[in-house]
Amino acid sequence: MKKKVLEVKGVKTSFFTHLGEVQGVRGIDFELNEGEILGIVGESGSGKSVTSLSIMNLVDHPGEIKEGQILFHQEDGKIIDFTSLSNRKMNEFRGNEIAMIFQDPMTSLNPVYSIQNQMIEVIQRHTDLNKEEAIERAKSLLEQVGIPDPDSQITDYPHQFSGGMRQRALIATAISCNPRLLIADEPTTALDVTIQAQILELLKKLQDEINMSIILITHDLGVIAEVSTHVIVMYGGMIMEKGTVNDVFYNPKHPYTVGLHSSIPKSTKKEKERLVPIEGSPPDLMDPPQGCPFSPRCPHAMQVCLEDAAPLFEVSDTQKVSCWLLHEDAPKPDEIFKGAK
Amino acid sequence: MAKYLIKRVLTALFTLLVIATITFFLLRAIPGGPFTREKPLPDAIIRALNEKYNLDEPLFIQYLSYIKGLLTFDLGPSYRILGYTVNDIIISGFPTSALIGGIASLLIVVIGIPLGIVSALKQNSPVDYMVMFMATLGVTVPNFIIATLIIYIFSTQLGWLPSNGISNPLGYIGPVIALMGYSLSFVSRLTRSSMLEVLRQDYVRTARANGISERKVIFKHALKNALIPVITYVGPMVAAILTGSFVVEKIFAIPGIGRYFVQGVTNRDYTVIMGMTVLYSAFYIFMILLVDLAYSWIDPRIRLEGGAR
CA of A10 to nearest chain B CA: how many angstroms apart? Predict the structure, then answer.
């Protein structure tokens, strides 16, 4: 039996703007075990970033977690509900047992403080190391993430680092206290492709070395395929499909997942074959569709889809899909899923 | 660093020379002169006065002798305030103006920046609305109205403050407040908007995600970045406030140097105008140098020599 790290139960996060309530996340459930890399994939506005900020309890005003629990399982088996913690208490976990890196390394480091200053601040925040020990720790972390000459480069300022190096420094800071969980919110989106591959490689290596779990948020299915063990597909603030990488990539059951697969270019496809876009546009989260959020764009939508959101149907032990087509009374249009193979 | 400073000082001296030159020739291009009166003086007297002050020499010779004086810090005699040199005028008035201006500048920084921070942190709260309302008033209400109101309320009605002069230390309160109004409001608005901008930055979110305490996020990570535009404004502001305000000094009957500038212009008192202009410019240039030094101290991306380290 694998040890759990995180359980997300029925979380709903909304932003209370002047125009009305924007429902960023509309009730999601998932769990994460030790050593897993969970990819959360979805298009812009699908709620994947809000999910990650909710887990960190970092949703900014006017946003707030309306409902649900975020249960963090500590090493010793103690379970803590992050949603019940004060900001001060939560700060003891952030950067310590649960860490996060963000999309744009160019702006995620404070330009007026040196790398060393920013790293030892975090290390000293969560440990009892004195300054010299913290600097040594920071240097060995930088070496671990592949900064070539930490002794001289640690005193550099962020503007003296390239984008890839900054992301490495941010990763080094994030893992400085050996977190149980690292959330990476589109860590490679702002980097060029070769650096992207290196950073993903690095995350995988670190996951192995310090035995942490990773939640990888991205809109890039290729990135997920490369590093993840498990995948969640989000749409309109809800989970459409979840399972292992093999489930979701080779046996997708939700029409949205199928649509995603047909809309990405494949090198094995024949020359003149066209990409198939998903018609329509994502739902308005201020006034989300009553039923399944994908129903207005779904080629197989039935009456029930427009009225009620589907529960998660179990396809196998690992794969769960929120789609009425999997209901036993639903028609079985086998041809739907052919295109994804 | 030393090389940079020498370069900056030399540039500053050159700038001052250019300012002095332009002012000198512009003044002479204005019709009238120091001895022009509503009821004209007899030609013989004007001739004699011009001769006494060497105003009968060719303009360029006058210019050269003025610059020569300037180099030895001799700003020449006043043509209208008899028996006084411009140096005397500055020595008698500047300390008073500078003291009042200095207190005002200090208070602007000490009060304005914290007010800005508080309203940024409590954005859209009653505190924020209150501060911003006051700030809008401070920017829009001219200082002579503030000064008059202070005199009316606190001197005439309540009798708490003297209405003029600074023989009583309480006399400083009125002029300091009147001088502060605009800049205090401006500084708090600037700090607020700059702080709001910085608090939205990704590195603030990174600091929070790393469990840094909220106090440190604000005062270490956000404030240092937020202060950059504030310093840009405060530098020249100090120069302007320290060199006196004609209106405020006039209303409170303070023997500062603000009034000499205005009097000098109406009287065509060439040397006084020149002296005041050079003094103000020198201050301004000095404050800008300080601002540049402060930039490089705050922001490592700004290197004084130019280029990376």
Answer: 23
